[in-house]
Amino acid sequence: MGSSAVTGLVVAVAVLAVATVFGVWRNRSDGRLRPVADGPMTMDPAAPRPLPSDDRPATLAADEAHPASEGTLRALGVDPATPVTLLQFSSAFCAPCRVTRRVLADVAGLVDGVTHLEVDAESHLDAVRALDIWRTPTTLIVAGGRIVSRAGGVPAKPQVLAAIAPLLDRAA
């Protein structure tokens, strides 16, 4: 076996290893609801903002110039008076979006005070940019007029129920 064959074999093994690590990471993180740092995502500018915490990932910069605002969420149909809104960004030919729609609609049908809104990402590009949406489906959980959690991919129904339970307790 020549040196070019060995080099090719090493490259192939390296590519397979990197692809495997990426696949495992993607599988573990897909659909997982993560808390959103309390930045400018609030619909009420007078709402108190908790201090940043190391265990809460900062997904958006907390500055006044960020385009995600009350107007963005309201334009998408989010009512700040609704205790919890499950805001789903979808696209036309997205099979996981259909599964997400069923999961979120089931949760909204089971739990009082929860609304499910589905938004076509292609028709709302300004909102997609403002809310830092990178893929479909993406689910945002909005409570008290601010985004508190987000998931890229299909969230599990028990995970959504667990994420909204404390929000509904606070609203009651």
UniProtKB/TrEMBL annotation:
Q: Does the keyword Methyltransferase apply?
A: no
Under Pfam families, the record lists: Thioredoxin
Keyword field: Membrane, Transmembrane, Transmembrane helix
**Which classification does the entry list for the species?**
Bacteria, Bacillati, Actinomycetota, Actinomycetes, Micromonosporales
Where would you find the membrane-spanning parts of this chain?
Answer: 6-25
| Residues of the Thioredoxin domain | 55-169
* Database matches in InterPro entries: Thioredoxin-like_sf, Thioredoxin_domain
Return the protein name.
Thioredoxin domain-containing protein
Q: Which Gene3D superfamilies match?
A: Glutaredoxin
Superkingdom as given in the UniProt entry: Bacteria
Residue numbers spanned by region Disordered? 33-59
